[in-house]
Amino acid sequence: MKSKLLFLILAVASAIVVPISANGQVAPEKPPKDLSGPDYKYEAYIGYGYTSLNQVSQSRSGLQGITGSLMRGFGDHFGLKADIGYYAWDVTATNTGNPTVTMYLVGPEVHGHLFEKWSAFAEGLLGGVQTGGVTIQPDVSFAGGVGVGLDYNKNARWSIRAYGDDIGSAFTVVPYQPGFSAHTRWNARAGIGLVYHF
Fold first, then answer.
1. CATH topology of domain 42-197
2. Mind listing the pLDDT tens digit for each residue in 43-56?
3. With the CA atoms of 73, 78, 81 and 87 taken in that order, what torsion angle do they form, in degrees rounded to the nearest 10?
4. Degrees, nearest 5: CA angle 53-50-149
5. What backbone phi and psi angles, to 5 degrees, belong to 18?
6. Which of 67, 157, 182, 185 is least crowded, fewest Cβ atoms below 10 Å from its Cβ?
7. DSSP symbol at 91
8. Residues 67-111: pLDDT tens digits?
9. Burial degree of 144 (CB within 10 A; 0-12, 13-18, 19+)
10. What does the domain layout of the chain look like in residue ranges?
11. Strands 63-74 and 78-90, how do they pair?
12. What is the mean pLDDT of the chain?
């Protein structure tokens, strides 16, 4: 009788202890993975650029060159951009003289995701345009304009960008005219290149 009672006590104790120890071995739930990707605050762009040359009278061709920009993002849709472009090579024909154009611009950018790997942006830029290699006044003109662009996002770090804008600046109307002029010349500008997010 004692052996049966002892066996019953061991059986009940085993039934209580084994499930408790088994419950203690269950792994805790893992937190879900964040699939949104890293949140980069900066982007750097470099690429090929084109600008028309309307401030130089009798120009036969636009100029090509290199462009670059650095943008600091603030939130998901806004940023502040610094943009520079240097254009020195004729596209289709030889221009009178050896004109060059250098642009220094800054301004706000609004950007957003379109679909899948595509995103777009719009920008407003202010700064200066320097025209060299020809005699026009002033050497550096106040400038500003607006533009739009499209990015194809290869991955979280790299994108391919195409953009276009229209930059207005004020130079003299007649070549070699002394003094300053409020006559605005608009130059279409375009570019394509690579964007690095960091």
1. Porin (2.40.160)
2. 999 999 999 998 88
3. 120
4. 125
5. -60, -50
6. 182
7. S
8. 999 999 999 999 999 999 999 999 988 888 889 999 999 999 999
9. middle
10. 42-197
11. antiparallel
12. 85
